[in-house]
Amino acid sequence: MKTTKKIIINIHGAGPKHYRFLEDGSGDWQSSLPSVLGNEFKVIAPQMPSPRNPTFEEWKILLDKYLAKINSEVIFVGHSLGASFLLKYLSQEKILQKVIGLFLVAMPFNKIDGFEVPNDLSQFSSIKNINLYHSMDDVEVPYAHALMYKDRLNANLKSYTAQGHFFKRSEFQDIANDIKAIYLKNGFEISQIE
Question: In this predicted model, what pLDDT tens digit does every residue of 101-116 receive, in sequence order?
Answer without folding.
Answer: 999 999 998 777 899 9
